[in-house]
Amino acid sequence: MRKTICLGVAAAMLFATACSHQEQKEELGTNAVVSFSVGLDSRIDTRAISDGKGVDQLMYAVFNEDGSELVVSKVTINDAASMIERNPTNGGYVDITLPKGHTYKVVFWAQNSECDAYTVSDDMKVTVDYDGLNNDETRDAFFAATMPFKLDHHLSKEVVLKRPFAQVNVGTYESELEAVKEYGSEVTYSSATIKGVANQIDLADGSVSGEVDVVYTASELPSEKLYVDVDKDGEKEVYEYISMCYVLAGDSNSVHEVAFDFSDANGNAVATTANIDLISLLRNWRTNILGYFFTGNANLDIVIDSAYEDDYNVITSNKDIFYSVSEDTVFENSTYIMSNYNVGLSFSSDSGQLVTLDNVKFYGSVWTVVLGEYGNAKKNNFNHVLNNVLAKDLEVSNVIKDHDVYVSVGVQLYGKSTLNNCKMTGTTTVATVHFDGTPHDYTPVDVGVPNASDAVINNSEIGSIYLWTHAVLTISNTHVDRIICSCCNSTNHSNLTVAAGSTVGVIDCTQPAKYGSRLIIEEGATVGELNLVNASFKDMEIRGTVNRITYNGVEYTLDELKAMGL
What gap in Å lies between CA 182 and CA 165, rounded to an integer? Predict the structure, then answer.
């Protein structure tokens, strides 16, 4: 279908005309026609939710080059469903006649005409009214703003409309809903609360503004399944849809508290989720919250993916999560919230494939987070790159004895690891008893580099690090509060290098007494205190700044220690 819009405007710039396509092609003297083929993003889901088929109303306006001046105020086209297809090739056309010789920008908005949640001004600013029901698919809408174009002759342009929203979905397992039925209830309705959400968007530049708390009231659950590839194996897992809503979002991540209420057909509460502080919302992305809601401890996987733009995962679990890949794999835009310190989280590979973590966050209670695999005969054959990884306030329970040192580690780095722009702080431990049954005081550390492992940490902030006796670590332009270093000269594969630009609060040298410390403090590096528990300077190089040196709790100068034969 082709729809021709002939604009009549009193302004001198605009020429009123009723015309045929042939007349338009002849460019109408001082005017020309720009033809827009309008379609929705071709990646839109084919299922009922988010299929875009409810969109039947199209609005547009024309601006000058930079969007600062309105040339043609909002035009509304009703009954436009046949014009707006999945992609511009199959969609309809909007023809706009404008004076030649000027540069324009055209802004589009498409929505379901039955939805009254959106107020669109003449200059294409949209205000969202969040009062209404949860699970309301009529709220799905799309927008686009063209790049500036100069109109000297007839032009044809494609326009792809995308959502200005984040879609927030909640899914659980079929067995979970069946368990609820066995207890004599049934989940029928859901409501959603999302705090601090934008409620205005300027379609001309895509900027959002405002901040309101969204409370979508209870309504019947979606009738279809929710499909999400949680483990990134290329196959989507199937979940039962129990909540869905749209909220306005910007083009960069924003973090919000969310909560959900579930009730039966009589309005009796079945479950209420605890507030989740770490949900990211991003324009044209789906946030899928997946797990157990009604039985046992909460086990939530929060996955943000797009039909949309890309995947973002947030996984909260009280069960072991173990990834072992057979090819180079990237885990990106993910948050893992663990809720049981008796389970672990591991990223491993079959035989040294590169595992990359980009923009990944770790929170909660966990046995430990492992890059690689403990006890694997190939434990030095792992390769990891961590970019912008956050591990914050982990509560761990692992127990590690290395000679006379007892530690409990947040993130363990087996094999070869490179950390860039990472922050790992605040680890605590509940560990009190070793595997042999003896009680000990375990020191919590944020990062551990085990034997036979090599790590490089760049431009990062780390609370504490433990190095096994046969570990290698270099830190560069990095701040560490404390390093417990057991690196010693019993092997060539053992060394700590504090490179230029790095600062360390305290380095505790805890290698076995019969060995010397393998430690290099380069020029341009600063160490607040070097604490020699069992120490020798035989393999130690200090070229940077060390403000204080202690040996068994007593402060000495470097020359004094060397005179003692250490």
Answer: 37
Going by the DSSP 8-state scheme, the letter that residue 351 receives in this structure is S
Residue 29 makes CB contacts below 8 A (sequence gap 6+) with none
| The pLDDT of residue 14 | 30
**Average of per-residue pLDDT across 84-110:** 80
Extract the tokens encoding 208: 């959002």
d(CA 110, CA 89): 17
Cα-Cα-Cα-Cα torsion 219, 225, 226, 227, nearest 10 degrees, comes to -170
Radius of gyration of the chain, Cα coordinates, nearest whole angstrom: 30
Q: Report the relative pairing of strands 390-392 and 495-498 from DSSP bridges.
A: unpaired
Give the integer Cα–Cα distance in Å for 307 and 33.
Answer: 33
Q: Is the dihedral of CA 237, 243, 248, 250 positive or negative?
A: negative
Q: What is the CATH number of the domain that holds 298?
A: 2.60.40
| Cα-Cα-Cα-Cα dihedral sign, residues 59, 64, 68, 69 | negative
Query: For residues 313 and 330, what is the distance between their CA atoms, to the nearest angstrom?
Result: 12
Length of the chain (residues): 566
The answer as to whether 329 is a domain residue is: no
The yes-or-no verdict on residue 378 having pLDDT over 60 is no
Last residue of a domain, one of 161, 183, 202: 161
CA atoms within 13 A on the CB side of 6: 10
Bridge partners (DSSP) of residue 545 are 526
Counting Cα atoms < 13 Å in the Cβ hemisphere of 416 gives 6
CA distance 527 to 531: 10
pLDDT in tens, 522-547: 999 999 999 988 666 667 889 999 99
Q: 194 and 263: one domain?
A: yes
Q: What single-letter amino acid sits at 556? A: Y
Three state DSSP letters for 410-473: EEEECCEEEEECCEEECCEECCCECCCCCECCCEEEEEEECCCCEEEEECCEEEEEEECCCCEE
φ/ψ of 560, rounded to 5, equals -65, -40
What is the C-alpha to C-alpha distance for residues 533 and 544, in angstroms, rounded to an integer? Answer: 21
Q: Which two tokens stand for residue 317?
A: 């679990």
Secondary structure (3-state) at 540: strand
203 is a domain residue: yes
- Look at residue 563 and give its three-state secondary structure: helix
